[in-house]
Design goal:
rod-shaped; single chain; 1 helix; 147 residues
Length: 147
Amino acid sequence: MDNDRNAPATRGNLEDVRVELKHDIAELRAEIKAELKQEVGGLRAELKQEVGGLRAELKQDIAALRGEAKEDNAQLRSEMQLMHEDLVERIRDSETKLLQAFYSFAESNQKRVSSVEEETAAIKSRLATVEERLTGVEKRLNMPPPR
């Protein structure tokens, strides 16, 4: 029967083929599993290397970003300090201008008050003179002439 390909297959022949196929399938499975394990192991090693490389790059990037952030922070602090100093200077300038304006007002007001006081003193002096004259006139009118 082995020589005749066109001869009908018997149950025994089919069973033998089935057993051989099962055995071949089992062998193929074992080979495939072994190959897959080997490939998975290789892929794991490659993946670990890749992850390690990515971690190193990420750490470098993080360190660089931290450095840049510190530089930016220092620059912002410097700019804010300059702005603060400029603001303080402007406030002082405003205070100086306000004080100068108040002093100018006070000086002109003092001149006016002095002027008013001088005029009041002059008026009082003139009033005193008028009162003296009036008193003199009243004396002459109220006293009889000496005989």
